[in-house]
Structures are given as structure tokens and as C-alpha cells.
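User: I'm putting together notes for a lab meeting next week and I want to include a structural view of one of the chains we've been expressing. I don't have a solved structure, so I'd like a prediction I can at least talk through. The sequence is below, exactly as it appears in our construct file.
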Amino acid sequence: MAKVVKSIRLKLHLISRNVGNYLGVFAVIFILMLQYSCKNDIEVFTEYKEQAVVYGLLDLGMQTQYLKIGKTFLNPNISAHEIAQIKDSLYFEDATIKLIEEQTGKEIIFFPTDSISKDSGFFQNSSNVIYSSNEIINPKYSYRLWIKDNKTGYTATGKTIIVNNPVINYPVSFSNPFWSVSPKLNINLRFVNGLNAKTQDAYFEFWVAEFPESDTSQSVIKKISWRFASNIINEGGPPYSPSNRVAVVPGIGFFDFFLGNMDNGVFNTNPNYQRKIVKTDFVLISASQDLADFVEASTPSIGIVQKQTDYSNVSNALGLFSSRNTIRISDITLDPASIEFFNSPQYPQYAILRLIQK
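Assistant: Thanks for the context. Below is the predicted structure for the 358-residue chain, given as C-alpha cells.
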């Protein structure tokens, strides 16, 4: 039997971590080859072509913009796993990364940083090169990404418009950061979408203190995120002009979400533990058309034929360069009456949470 080396489609994955004000942190994973062998070996390789692998989302809601840029690799003499442990195989040694503001010609230089840790996995995590800039992004302009390997002369480019800020009206707003929720009523989400936003997801984020009833000094803070509305589509086509958007969600979902964190092991199941919500934020994330298309193309098929579409909008590279918008309303006041439902005889299933007032 011959030894056949199969090249498989590059897959790009995003690993996000909240650092400070919802910082996006990305990890690029790409596997080019799997090897199978038997008695007689015949090795077949295509000629290596230098290519960047890009994941970058410009976001008006972020103080710092991040671009995750790596490169593909190929070495017929060692396994892909061995190459994946070598930093120089994953990142450019000397590259120029910049944005060009198309309407003004202004250049924004991105500098490499290795200060954000990377989760362990198939690839080495001793280094995690990410390019960043603190320059302000203008919502009125479009931006061109320009990548150059200064050693080889290789270049790649991408382009994106900017998703503008939405206007949030309900269930909370910047002028009224107060939220009341009941298992008997619906949660009404109302907002005006930002220009260039194709779709939106809405979250509540909770910081929950968990502690033994007998010793509150042993309190541990656990953060949990509830995506209560997702894929709210703005109909029509680009630029998706601002208009009123509405989503309706049963209020009991909030209470079931907390109970689910008991069932999945996030909360301590010790019956002597109590909890209280110490902080609540509302987050609305809006995605551009390109980002929405990328997410749709990356969604696994549920049919008999497991076919998945490759998607890339970066010229002479692989990956995604696009825009999203993250709006956060912090330190929401949660109505004390809402907490009382967790301890109501009418809803005994929630008593196990032992959720008390702040």
C-alpha cells in the first residue's frame, strides 16, 4: 500500500477571552497535512506558498484594536505536530502590519505584542503574537489592511467598513440602567441598529459571589454570560440603515439560566452555599455582513453530507478582516423583587440556588 499524504482544508478558529473591557483575544489554528503509511512510501507534496492567516475585527467599542496574524507552514521532513511547536513556523519574523484610512490616506501602524496568554492546545502556547493599536477608529471611514513580510516581500490585503454604534432603548439604557425581570413576563429588547450592522446578539453578564453560609470571607466571584437573544437580522442590504429592532424573550429564561449553571457544575452544589449577584452588565454585539457570512460559512452542516464552505475575504491570504461593534451598559441595578422569585414557593425549583439580595 502506498503512503498517501492528504492535504486538508485549513480551518481557522477564534478563541475569545474577556480581558478588561471585553478585549478580544484570538488564536489561529491551521493543520495542513495528515500522513498515513504502510509498506511502500510515496510522498506527494505541493510546492509551499507563503500565506498569511488573518483574524481581525475592528470594533468601535474597544479602546485597543487587535489583529491576529500568523502564517501557514509546510515541512515534508517532520510532522505537522512538531512544526506546530516552533514559534517561527507560526508567526512572521519581521512584518509590517498597518491600516490605511481610505478616505484620508492616514496610516495606522500595528505593533506586535506577546503580553496576552494563549490557551494550551495543538499549537505551542509559550508565545502568542498579536498585533495591536490604540489609534481611534472613525465610524465614517473604511479601512484597508496591509500585510508585508519584510524578509520575502510577500503582501496581503483586506478591506472593511465600520459597524456604527446602535441606540439601546430597552430593557435597559444608558439613561436608565435599571432592570426588572419576572418569570411571568417577557423580556422586550428594543434598539436602533448601527449603520453597517447585519446582525446582533444580546447578552447579560453577571458576576456572582458564591460563599459558605457560615463564612462569607471565603467568597469566590464567578462570571457567567447569558446570551438571551441571538442572530437578530437586519433585513434589506448594505449599508443596513438604522431602524427599530425588537426581540421578545420569555423572562423565565433568566431564572432557568441560573439554574442551569448549578446543573452544569459552574456553581458549587454544596447545599450550605449561598450566592448573590454583585454586578450586572448588558452587552449588545453587532456584526458586519462579512462577519455574518463568515459565521454562517463556519457553522457545521447538520445534513447527511457534512459539507462546509470555505470563507476568506483577505486577498492573497486566508481568514477574515471585518468589523463588529460591542456596546456595554455596565453596573445595571437589578430589581430586588426579581431576586425574590428565586425564593418564592411558587417556583420551588430555584430554591437550590439560595440566591440572596445584594
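A couple of points you could mention at the meeting. Confidence is low (pLDDT under 50) at residues 1-40. The first helix runs from residue 80 to 83.

User: Perfect, that's what I needed.
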